[in-house]
Specification:
237 residues, alpha+beta, 60s Ribosomal Protein L30, Chain: A, 4-stranded antiparallel sheet, 13 strands, Bact_OuterMem_StrucFunc
Length: 237
Amino acid sequence: MEHQIADVAMARFSAKPGGQLAFDVDWQSKGIQGGQATLSVIPAPWQQADTVPLAHASWRQQRLHFTQQVPEALNALADGRWLALDEAGNPHQLVMSSIHFQQAYSDFRLCRGEASVEQTLDGQRLTLHFKVGSQQLSPAQRQQLETLAARLTSDARISSLLIESFTDNRGKAELNLRLSRMRAEQVADQLRGTLPTLPMDIRAYGEASPLTDNDTPAGRYQNRRVTITLIQAEQAS
């Protein structure tokens, strides 16, 4: 995920194998002499909040490389705050705004296979996205399901789960329907390990009911999904 800072630098968030996040800033102009820079969270011009230093890095071949506090930096941008880079003795500040950040961050999270928790009219819904042709859960998705299951063991309000599975429109419709069923069963099997007696209603739709068009990789990724909706006792009656 890239962000051009004026005409002088390119900021880039990336995820390495294993999930570690990094934040790099490549200087595209003259004037960098080396030395250390501080990455901080700052309020947007219309906000009232304190500056919060996050991490330090040194310029190496026109680049700053941060691996500490990167999730905190992303969360700050998602909350509407900005990032700033300062150098000791340099009166100028390099600022990265959060304007137009939300859509890019949403795509970044989808590409990492992260699930999102969405409020719905009938409880909460957990959405998991899948790679092309895959029915396997990632380690991160298994952890998210384990966290959800652990929460439900102590929540007597939830009477059942509705598990719905969808694909993109690539490939044959009958194969997509079968794949959506296998993905839903994978999710259910993972949850049953902790919740063996909780009723689960599994519905596979294949390529029906896309969230968005299938014309782009990002759109197809959003459509390859399994949603788990928590049904409360009064809703089931």
